[in-house]
Write a structure and sequence with these properties.
Elements (H helix, E strand, L loop, with lengths): L1 H10 L5 H52 L3 E6 L18 E5 L19 E5 L8 E6 L8 E4 L14 E6 L7 E5 L5 E4 L12
Antiparallel strand pairs: 1-2, 1-5, 2-3, 4-6, 6-7, 7-8
Length: about 200
């Protein structure tokens, strides 16, 4: 009977103070190692999300131009609200975008329509998983621009100030930058300017 009580008492014993300190120390060390890695992963994910979204938006403009047999444009806009508002303006640094038939400046809050100005097709806000991301759109001469227009054949309109490249980076250092490249024929590619050699991600 006494042996049973002793066994029961020992099985109910809790952690000692030393064991608790060791466990807390291990948790603290693990957090110190994992938190910076998690931060870098989140920043890289934000850059990737923005890059994929921009590429998809440009593709949408191109396909819509083909479908409608009419010019269609991709525009970078300054608005960062979750639902783009009519307070938006065109910006070569985005970070959000709109696909429409005419300039969406001051009209980003418009509903999707094939007839009502600006004939909005689609839009995306950087607030959707890409906070802290920075965009820089340039034309062939390296000048800042905010849009690219596709003709009824799905080709980027030649001449004028048309986006040929958008660099996607993060405001915090340490994230891997990406680049969206638009070819004259209309093809769009997301690539890594830091990749080298035979890496298929290379720009």
């Amino acid at each position: 009977m006494d042996a049973l009580r002793t066994s029961k008492a020992s099985s109910q014993r809790g952690l000692t103070l030393i064991e608790l300190v060791v466990v807390l120390t291990l948790i603290g060390l693990s957090m110190a190692v994992l938190v910076p890695e998690a931060g870098a992963w989140i920043r890289n994910l934000s850059v990737r999300n923005a890059g994929e979204s921009v590429r998809a938006g440009i593709e949408k403009a191109r396909l819509e131009a083909l479908r409608r047999n009419a010019p269609m444009s991709f525009w970078l806009v300054s608005d960062t609200s979750k639902a783009l508002s009519d307070g938006c303006s065109l910006s070569g640094t985005g970070p959000s975008w709109v696909v429409s038939g005419s300039s969406p400046a001051g009209k980003c809050g418009a509903a999707v329509s094939e007839t009502v100005d600006p004939q909005l097709v689609d839009k995306w806000s950087a607030a959707d998983g890409s906070s802290g991301v920075e965009l820089k759109a340039v034309d062939e001469a390296g000048a800042a621009v905010s849009s690219v227009t596709f003709n009824s054949l799905g080709q980027a309109v030649a001449g004028g100030s048309q986006i040929v490249r958008i660099d996607v980076s993060h405001s915090t250092s340490g994230a891997r930058a990406l680049r969206v490249v638009i070819q004259a024929g209309g093809s769009v590619r997301l690539c890594d300017p830091a990749a080298s050699g035979d890496d298929p991600r290379r720009c």
